[in-house]
Design a protein that fits this description.
The protein has four helices and three strands; from the N terminus they run αααβββα. It has 135 residues and is of the alpha+beta class. The chain is elongated, with a radius of gyration of 25 Å.
Amino acid sequence: MTKEHVKPRTIYRRDTPKTDSKLPTYMSLSELRKLFHFLEQDNSRMAMRNHLLFKLLATTGMRRSEIVELTWEQIDLSNNTIRIYGKGKKERLLPLHPMVVPLMKSYMESLEEYQLHPSQPVFLYKLKPVVLVEL
């Protein structure tokens, strides 16, 4: 067969569908109960913070980055809501579960006054230096 008799072919490229990098893993209800039971029995220095943090995650569906960046000005205890700034700076209002409200109030009472400044993070890491804000 000569080159003159061979018809050129058009090759079409097909893109493969994108796959999710990794699906999130969720805890079962029994695992959550075990975690909450453990947190309720914990008497360590950071116990109250950890208890509140995990109950907020479980009851609101907040992303890890959202809870880490949460400040006091985003929490409205008079309406039992949290204002979240998520992906793309989209804003959403989340209701606080009734079991979380007393925990939040107890946690607030355990903090120093300067730690409750509206611009301060709600969840402090024990080794993180506190940045004081001039009023």
